[in-house]
Design a protein that fits this description.
Blueprint lengths: L4 H9 L3 E4 L5 E4 L3 E4 L10 H9 L3 E4 L3 H9 L8 H12 L3 E8 L2 E11 L2 E9 L4 H15 L4 E5 L3 H4 L4 E4 H12 L7
Parallel strand pairs: 7-8
Antiparallel strand pairs: 1-2, 3-8, 3-9, 4-5, 5-6, 6-7
């Protein structure tokens, strides 16, 4: 199937995100309240995770095994990442818009975060882990990387208890659109 990658990127740039629906078709979605991960001192994580970080059990990589991260994010009982959406992520990666931020333990993929980068916006699509703490370490290291590179926005789309522990907060659509517009005119690179 042919996909219009420019149109897909434009959809994300307008604040929408793709998800598979119940019929395995794809749809564009938005939310009145958007969940953001803070890129300032409001970002936090549990003390127990600080110990794991200090032990340096994991190394981090970007796009070392992008297809495995996509597969890991899709590998759950209920998923919005259909085979069609997996294919789109791979095409977005080839076009330079999709990234996997990964944690590794030796030669084993421990966890990762899948996201779309447009300007200074990192739009988190999903995360997973295979080794406990793998995705949490990826979150901390990704936030550090986004800060270093001058990103404006880390969009996590929807709130969940896991994200709340990192200081995630909600903004209304008007606030989100303002931040998104600032991010779109900011030149950033993840690597």
């Amino acid at each position: 199937m042919q996909y219009d990658i420019a149109a897909i990127v434009q959809g994300y740039a307008q604040g929408y995100f793709l998800m598979a629906d119940d019929d395995d078709g794809l749809g564009w979605y938005s939310s009145r309240d958007r969940t953001l991960i803070p890129l300032d001192e409001q970002f936090r994580y549990p003390t127990s995770l600080r110990r794991v970080l200090n032990q340096e059990r994991f190394t981090v990589a970007i796009n070392r095994d992008f297809p495995a991260v996509v597969a890991g994010c899709a590998n759950r009982e209920t998923t919005w990442i259909s085979p069609e959406l997996q294919e789109i992520y791979l095409l977005l990666r080839q076009a330079g818009f999709a990234y996997s931020f990964e944690t590794w333990q030796g030669d084993k993929l421990a966890g990762g975060i899948l996201g779309i980068v447009i300007g200074g916006a990192f739009i988190g699509e999903s995360m997973f882990y295979r080794i406990p703490e793998g995705s949490k370490v990826a979150m901390v290291k990704l936030v550090e990387q986004l800060r270093q590179q001058g990103f404006v926005l880390f969009d996590a789309q929807m709130m969940n208890p896991h994200l709340e522990r990192f200081g995630a907060y909600s903004v209304n659509d008007e606030e989100y659109q303002t931040l998104l517009q600032q991010a779109l005119v900011t030149r950033c690179t993840l690597v």
